[in-house]
Amino acid sequence: MFGTAVIVFREVLEAALLVGIIAAATRSIPGRNRWLGAGILAGLSGAGLVAAFTDVIGALASGIGQELFNASVLGIAVLMLAWHNIWMASHGAELAAGARAVGSAIRDGKRECSILLIVVGLAVLREGSETVLFLYGIAASEGSGASSMLSGGLAGLILGIAVGYAVYAGLLRVPMRWFFTATGLLVLLLAAGMASQAARFLIQADLLPSLASPLWDTSATLPESSIPGMLLHSLIGYDARPAGMQIVFYATVLVTIAIGMKLANRSAPALQP
Amino acid sequence: MRMIIIRTSLLLDVPVKSAFNSLPSYIGFIPILLILLVPVRVLGADGEFSLVIQDHRFQPAELKLPAGKKIKLIIENRDATPEEFESHSLNREKVIAGRSSASIFIGPLDPGRYPFIGEFNEKTAQGVIVVQ
Q1: Strands across the sheet containing B100-106
Q2: pTM (two decimals)
Q3: Which of A113, A196, B64, B112 could form a disulfide with A246 if both were Cys (CB 3.0 to 4.6 A apart)?
Q4: For the segment A56-111, what is each residue's pLDDT rounded down to a tens digit?
Q5: Could you say which of B7, B10, B81 has the minimum Cβ distance to residue A141?
Q6: Residue A209, class by beta-carbon neighbours within 10 Å (0-12 exposed, 13-18 middle, 19+ buried)?
Q7: A198 is in which domain, residue-wise?
Q8: What are the tens digits of pLDDT across the range B11-63?
Q9: What Å distances lie between residue A51 and A64, A123, B125, CA to CA?
C-alpha cells in the first residue's frame, strides 16, 4: 500500500503543483473556477484514453510515438504558459485593480480562460495516464489486494492534492504588491522546466543530440528521488543529471518568455492610482 | 458604457463554446511545433542491446554496455501488464505497454554502474547497466 501511495503521490504532485500555481495566478479572472474544473475533467478523461491506447501511441512513428506525444503535450503547455504570462504582464495589473470593465481585457480574459483549460487539462492528462496504467498493472497482477491498492492510491492522491492546495493557499497570502511578480516567476520556471523535459524526451527518441550527457551530476547532493528533489523537479524543472540540450531548451524558453513579459509590460496602459 | 455591459455578460457563456471562439489566436503555433517534431532520424545508434521483462523482472538483470557509444536499448515486455522503465542515473523513463516492445536511446556513457527499475513493480523489477 505504501509503495502505491508513493508512486501515485509522485504523479499527482506534478499536476497538483501546476494547478495550484495556475489557480493562484488567475485568482482575479472572473469565472476561472469553472474553467479549472473543466480542464481537470477533460484531463482525467484524456488520461483514461491515453492509458487505454498506450500500445497504439507507443507503436507510432516507428516506436517513438510515446516520446513524440509527451514532447508535444509539453511543448503545447509551454506555449500556453508563455501566452498566459505575457498576457498577465499586460493585463494582470488592471484585473488586480478591479478595472475589469476594460473592454479588451475582458475579451482577452475569455481567451486567457481557454488557455487555462488547456494547460490544466494537459498536465492532468500526462500525469494521470501514468497513474491509471500503474494502478491497472497492480489491479491486474495477482497477490495484491484491490482494497490495499485503492487505499494506497487514495492516500497518494489526497497527499498530492494537499501539497498543491498548500502552494495555492500560500501564494494567496503573498501581498498584492509582489503577487504578480511571484506567480509570474513561478509560471516562467514551470514553462522552462517543461521545455527541458520535452528536450529529454526528444533526446531519448534520438531526434535531438544530447550535446553533453550529463552536463552536471548533483544526484549525490540532491537526488531527484528525495522530497526536495521531487518538489524542485516539478516546480523549476530541477534535473540531477541534465543533458546539455535540456539546458539549451530551458534557457531559451526562460529568456524568450521573460523578454515577452517585459515588452508586454512596457506597452500596457498605465494604471490609475 | 453599454458596450462594456454586453461584453461582461459574454463571460457567462458556456466555457467550451468560448474556448473554440478564441482558439485561432494562438493555435497557429501548434502546427509549427508539430513540424519541428517530424522524425528526421539523422543521428542513429552505434549498437543495439536488448532487455526482456518477464514476471516483473528484467532479464538480464545486469547488462554490460560499451563506454562512449550511443546505444539503442530495446526492451520487450512479455508480461500482460504495462511497465515503466525508469532510471534516474540514465535520465530516462518510458512506459512499455503489456506484451509489446519499446526502444530507448542512451549514451554515450562514461564507465560506471547505472541502476534502473520498473517503476510499476519496483520490488522485483530491478537491474543495472554496467558500462565499461
Answers
A1: B57-59, B47-54, B71-77, B100-106
A2: 0.83
A3: A196
A4: 898 888 888 999 999 999 999 999 999 989 888 887 666 666 555 455 555 666 77
A5: B81
A6: middle
A7: 2-267
A8: 444 444 444 444 555 555 666 666 555 555 556 778 899 999 999 999 999 99
A9: 16, 14, 21
CB A128 within 8 A of CB A11: yes
CB contact under 8 A, B11 and A109: yes
- Cβ partners under 8 Å of residue B71, min gap 6: B45, B46, B47, B48, B49, B65, B105, B106, B107, B109
* Alpha-carbon span A198 to A201, nearest angstrom: 5
Residue A40, C-alpha cell as written in the block: 481537470
* Interface contact flag, A114 B40, Cβ < 8 Å: no
The chain-wide mean pLDDT, for chain A, equals: 87
Q: Nearest 5°: phi and psi at A222?
A: -140, 80
pLDDT for res A139: 78
CB B51 within 8 Å of CB B76: yes
The domains of chain B are located at 2-36, 47-131
Cβ neighbours of B24 in A, within 8 Å: none
The grid cell for A89 is 504582464
Please report the ipTM that was assigned to this predicted complex. 0.82
CATH number (2.40.70.10, 2.60.34.10, 2.60.40.420, 2.60.40.1120) of B47-131 reads: 2.60.40.420
